[in-house]
């Protein structure tokens, strides 16, 4: 039996206000751009205005004469013509990986690529001088359509590679021995009147992470050690990759990520500008600083999503799914990001979602285009997969004339079937989809809204109601290392922690999980307070500095709690065991006769005891401690999980669509998530709300648009819509708990859940509102204009085509056939 998670200890489960918020909201925080060592020089990057061109000349003379300018440098000037930034995920042995330069050498491959760098005594002087650098180009036609680029004979982004396809990665359940043959499933369904084949194409548009704090880097070469401050999610990985890229000994590098204002995966990379700061600091022997402008950030910080998804699902007429075939094109942009090639592959293991699908094949082709590179963004492959399967489940329900929720329930893994090994070979340890769904439907009033929907349809109400459904699960806590190794990922999945018991009984905890807004300092303090029995206020969490916390693999993929948190638990247990030995010695008792609770060691059956703080002081004094034992309670731990964790949930959206204007309104949103045991409900609620905002934004608002010359046309917040609180309703959120069995806290992770689940819920709701009017597909974002156009096409009206975009043929509204608005069905 599963129940809503209840607090089991003094701190775990308590809704504590985040301890880090006081400094963050009162201006006492310290971001990278706040750091300016004495004598700092500032840089500005001269960026290409063309998406694809040959560089014929660079004239630096006017810029070099500008006030405050220290120098203007190209890759050749820095001796960096052969320096290439790392890609840590070669998904196939033959993956094509062009060198990603710190500055362009001979040609540019996307609009915004760095061509030269100006060094000046102020940031303003550097930016002004950058405008004086004259770069002559010989323009080339850009390669922008990923599907066309993948075809034989296409113009090549990198001619020396021989193809625009970087790699094609395939998973086949029949070949892997984890399921049936999808080819046979399709062949059987096509020949059997009692079965159905449904094919659909979905488009994942290109997004921009749009974090609050622009990227920034400061490098100080003072002394023998280089100190790098960076607005990054991955200080430990940045240190290692700086060594790999530039050859600086890792022991000579200290990387500090101070307060970081959001990341969402957008700060997971190793940047050309970071490497430029290192190169220039070494060359000039002065501190060097770079902070990007917002438009520069949107133009050149990596983008995300950007997939074409072709899905084929087979099922019996009674609704039982028999197979799923997935083919993706994924746009890598002009180069490969740090983990960009592997992002679609993470989705490969989630297309089966919560369903018992007996046969599955997944094929992904990663394609180069002359656009900004793509890489991880909140959910990283899992939102794309959830969108695909949840959209096609609705399409299947329509073709079978079934209620979409009933169809899902028929095919999902029942709670009594856990642990369950899926068609892709993953073992889901726990879950209860029935519980989460039932509660969500109660909070949503699913039956009542269905009745209202029917009434509006009968009355031809100009404002129609749609109900959007998304059930989901995800693999999070990016680990274990052995599994990542089998996928050729360039790192492990472990995390490290250490606990220092100070003489006065206070506790310092170092963690390799580096926060960028998640509330680590609060949640980790709650865990340590409970495990050691010390006051919450007596715990300090130290992170984000490779000299303070020397070991770690950083923060992404909802791994902070389920991996980093467990490393802290294990370190705390080691502290307790060390303290037990000293306590037994001081109390003249056997270790086996000691009980530990609420920070107190007590001899069984007596009132004799010692608090752990007393023992910490005794260890510090070292006057009396057991023979052969070091006088210290300090302990380290590294945790490498045995499995991923698998949170899940049910998300429901009530969408209203004005059929006269196309206006879309999100009326109500309910979600019930199972994230295992909850450490801090306030942090969970904040994470869910933030995730929902990002997932809903993809469905309704956000899209990075390029013109036919490869220029990003909405590189400011005037043109790129990031929703505010005024654009979203109040959310109804709850959690239920089937504790994970893969870690001692029973936690599963929550950081990405809202983003993963919400996008298909919204789109399914919009389509559900107007499907009866002949509309079966609207490309995201489902703006009023796109909805209105789809309604006009469904009515048989001629509508003017929108301006040319970089979307592939067949992916957009222009491909809707009014005589067959539902697409191909067999």
From TrEMBL:
<dbReference type="InterPro" id="IPR016208">
    <property type="entry name" value="Ald_Oxase/xanthine_DH-like"/>
</dbReference>
<keyword id="KW-0500">Molybdenum</keyword>
<dbReference type="InterPro" id="IPR037165">
    <property type="entry name" value="AldOxase/xan_DH_Mopterin-bd_sf"/>
</dbReference>
<dbReference type="InterPro" id="IPR000674">
    <property type="entry name" value="Ald_Oxase/Xan_DH_a/b"/>
</dbReference>
<dbReference type="InterPro" id="IPR008274">
    <property type="entry name" value="AldOxase/xan_DH_MoCoBD1"/>
</dbReference>
<dbReference type="InterPro" id="IPR036856">
    <property type="entry name" value="Ald_Oxase/Xan_DH_a/b_sf"/>
</dbReference>
<protein>
    <submittedName>
        <fullName>Molybdopterin-dependent oxidoreductase</fullName>
    </submittedName>
</protein>
<feature type="domain" description="Aldehyde oxidase/xanthine dehydrogenase a/b hammerhead">
    <location>
        <begin position="26"/>
        <end position="141"/>
    </location>
</feature>
<dbReference type="InterPro" id="IPR046867">
    <property type="entry name" value="AldOxase/xan_DH_MoCoBD2"/>
</dbReference>
<dbReference type="Pfam" id="PF01315">
    <property type="entry name" value="Ald_Xan_dh_C"/>
</dbReference>
<feature type="region of interest" description="Disordered">
    <location>
        <begin position="794"/>
        <end position="826"/>
    </location>
</feature>
<dbReference type="Pfam" id="PF20256">
    <property type="entry name" value="MoCoBD_2"/>
</dbReference>
<keyword id="KW-0560">Oxidoreductase</keyword>
<feature type="compositionally biased region" description="Polar residues">
    <location>
        <begin position="798"/>
        <end position="808"/>
    </location>
</feature>
<dbReference type="Pfam" id="PF02738">
    <property type="entry name" value="MoCoBD_1"/>
</dbReference>
């Amino acid at each position: 039996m599963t129940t809503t998670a209840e607090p089991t200890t003094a701190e775990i489960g308590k809704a504590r206000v985040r301890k880090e918020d006081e400094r963050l909201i009162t201006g006492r925080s310290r971001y990278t751009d706040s750091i300016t060592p004495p004598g700092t020089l500032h840089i500005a990057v001269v960026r290409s205005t063309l998406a694809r061109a040959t560089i014929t000349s660079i004239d630096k003379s006017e810029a070099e004469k500008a006030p405050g300018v220290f120098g203007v440098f190209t890759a050749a000037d820095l001796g960096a013509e052969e320096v290439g930034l790392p890609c840590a995920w070669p998904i196939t042995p033959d993956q094509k990986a062009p060198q990603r330069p710190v500055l362009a050498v001979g040609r540019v491959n996307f609009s915004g690529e760095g061509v030269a760098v100006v060094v000046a005594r102020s940031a303003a002087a550097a930016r002004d001088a950058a405008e004086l650098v004259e770069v002559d180009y010989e323009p080339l036609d850009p390669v922008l359509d990923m599907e066309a680029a993948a075809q034989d004979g296409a113009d090549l982004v990198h001619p020396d590679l021989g193809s625009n396809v970087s790699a094609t990665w395939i998973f086949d359940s029949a070949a892997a021995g984890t399921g049936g043959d999808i080819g046979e499933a399709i062949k059987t369904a096509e020949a059997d009147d009692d079965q159905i084949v449904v094919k659909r194409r979905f488009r994942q548009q290109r997004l921009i992470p749009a974090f609050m704090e622009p990227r920034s880097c400061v490098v100080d070469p003072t002394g023998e050690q280089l100190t790098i401050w960076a607005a990054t999610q991955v200080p430990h990985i940045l240190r290692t990759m700086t060594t790999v890229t530039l050859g600086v000994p890792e022991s000579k590098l200290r990387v500090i990520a101070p307060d970081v204002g959001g990341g969402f995966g957008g700060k997971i990379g190793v940047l050309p500008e970071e490497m430029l700061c290192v190169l220039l600091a070494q060359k000039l022997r002065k501190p060097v600083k770079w902070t990007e402008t917002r438009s520069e950030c949107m133009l050149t910080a990596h983008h995300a999503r950007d997939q074409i998804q072709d899905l084929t699902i087979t099922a019996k007429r009674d609704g039982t799914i028999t197979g799923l075939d997935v083919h993706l094109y994924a746009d890598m942009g002009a180069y490969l990001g740090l983990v960009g090639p592997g992002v679609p592959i993470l989705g490969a293991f989630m297309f089966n979602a919560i369903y018992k699908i007996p046969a599955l094949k997944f094929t992904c082709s990663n394609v180069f285009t002359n656009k900004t590179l793509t890489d991880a963004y909140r959910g990283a492959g899992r939102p794309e997969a959830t969108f695909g399967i949840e959209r096609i489940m609705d399409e299947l329900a329509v073709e079978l004339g079934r209620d979409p929720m009933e169809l899902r329930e028929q095919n999902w893994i029942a709670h009594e079937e856990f642990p369950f090994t899926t068609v892709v070979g993953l073992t889901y340890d726990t879950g209860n989809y029935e519980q989460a769904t039932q509660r969500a439907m109660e909070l949503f009033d699913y039956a009542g809204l269905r009745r209202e929907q029917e009434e509006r349809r009968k009355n031809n109400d100009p404002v129609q109601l749609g109900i959007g459904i998304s059930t989901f699960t995800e693999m999070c806590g990016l680990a274990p290392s052995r599994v990542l190794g089998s996928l050729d990922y360039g790192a492990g999945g472990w995390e490290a922690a250490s606990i220092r018991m100070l003489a006065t009984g206070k506790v310092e905890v170092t963690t390799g999980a580096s926060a960028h807004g998640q509330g680590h300092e609060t949640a980790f303090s709650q865990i340590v307070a409970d495990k050691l029995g010390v006051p919450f206020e007596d715990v300090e969490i130290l992170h984000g500095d490779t000299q303070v916390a020397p070991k770690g693999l950083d923060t992404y993929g909802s791994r902070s709690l389920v991996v980093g948190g467990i490393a802290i638990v294990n370190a705390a247990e080691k502290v307790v065991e060390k303290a037990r030995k000293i306590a037994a010695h001081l109390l003249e008792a056997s270790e086996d006769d000691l009980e530990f609770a609420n920070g107190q060691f007590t001899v069984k059956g007596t009132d004799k005891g010692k608090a752990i703080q007393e023992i910490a002081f005794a260890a510090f004094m070292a006057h009396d401690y057991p023979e052969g034992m070091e006088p210290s309670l300090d302990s380290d731990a590294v945790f490498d999980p045995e499995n991923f964790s698998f949170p899940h949930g049910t998300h429901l959206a009530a969408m209203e669509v004005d059929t006269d204007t196309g206006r879309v309104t999100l009326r109500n949103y309910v979600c019930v998530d199972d994230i295992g045991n909850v450490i801090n409900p306030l942090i969970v609620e904040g994470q869910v709300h933030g995730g929902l905002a990002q997932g809903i934004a993809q469905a309704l608002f956000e899209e990075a648009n390029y013109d036919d010359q490869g220029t990003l046309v909405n590189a400011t917040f005037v043109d790129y819509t990031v929703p505010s609180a005024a654009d979203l309703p109040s959310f109804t959120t709850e959690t239920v708990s089937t504790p994970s069995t893969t870690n001692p806290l029973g936690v599963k992770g929550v950081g990405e859940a809202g983003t993963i689940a919400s996008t298909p819920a919204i789109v399914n709701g919009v389509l559900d509102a107007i499907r009866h009017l002949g509309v079966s597909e609207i490309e995201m974002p489902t703006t009023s204009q796109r909805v209105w156009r789809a309604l006009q096409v469904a009515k048989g009206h001629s509508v003017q085509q929108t301006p040319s975009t970089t979307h592939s043929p067949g992916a957009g509204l222009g491909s809707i056939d009014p005589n067959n608005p539902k697409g191909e069905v067999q």
